[in-house]
Amino acid sequence: MSGHEITLVVNGVARRVSVPARRLLSDCLRHDLGLTGTHVGCEHGVCGCCTVLLDGEPVRSCLTFAVTVDGQEITTVEGLAGPDGMSAVQRAFAECHGLQCGFCTPGFLCTVTALLRENPAPTEEEVVEGVSGNLCRCTGYQNIIKAVHRAADLMAEES
């Protein structure tokens, strides 16, 4: 099986990798680049565990072929933290207990990061709609929703 040479800018670093044409972005990130923070749950794009940011927009990496994103910028959960530590979204999820088993957390963190970049002060309904594409089997969503509002507050304080 021949590989396709692609360059991905992952978490700010250009990474060159050879992948088969049908390699999923989630598999490329996890197996080829060693970034195991991106989780694979349903493998059908339903659960949102594999969500990463592609040029700033949330995408399902389990539905995206790696060769189709050659040259684009990808942010995984490993790239959300700044040089000073956790991002506001990560801090809020920890502070508000917005995670339990943690399996869905990377997808939520990427989704919420994009949501708050687009809408820094979402209403309750906008938060519910914004995270509706991510499934969690543990939390019941109340603390996730609290975490989104807390992250919005933290981001407002930082600016």
Automatic annotation (TrEMBL):
SUPFAM superfamilies assigned: 2Fe-2S ferredoxin-like, CO dehydrogenase ISP C-domain like
Entry-linked InterPro entries: 2Fe-2S-bd, 2Fe-2S-bd_dom_sf, 2Fe-2S_ferredoxin-like_sf, 2Fe-2S_ferredoxin-type, Beta-grasp_dom_sf, Diverse_Oxidoreductases
Q: In which pathway does it act?
A: Alkaloid degradation; nicotine degradation
Specify the superkingdom: Bacteria
Query: Single GO molecular-function term?
Result: 2 iron, 2 sulfur cluster binding
EC number from the UniProt entry: 1.2.7.4
The residues covered by the 2Fe-2S ferredoxin-type domain are 4-80
- The enzyme's first-digit EC class, named in words, is oxidoreductase
User: Pfam families from the entry?
Assistant: Fer2, Fer2_2
**Keywords recorded for this protein, A-Z:** 2Fe-2S, Iron, Iron-sulfur, Metal-binding, Oxidoreductase
| PROSITE patterns reported in the protein's UniProt record | 2FE2S_FER_2
Protein name stated in the entry: Carbon-monoxide dehydrogenase small subunit
UniProt organism field: Nonomuraea endophytica
Lineage here is: Bacteria, Bacillati, Actinomycetota, Actinomycetes, Streptosporangiales
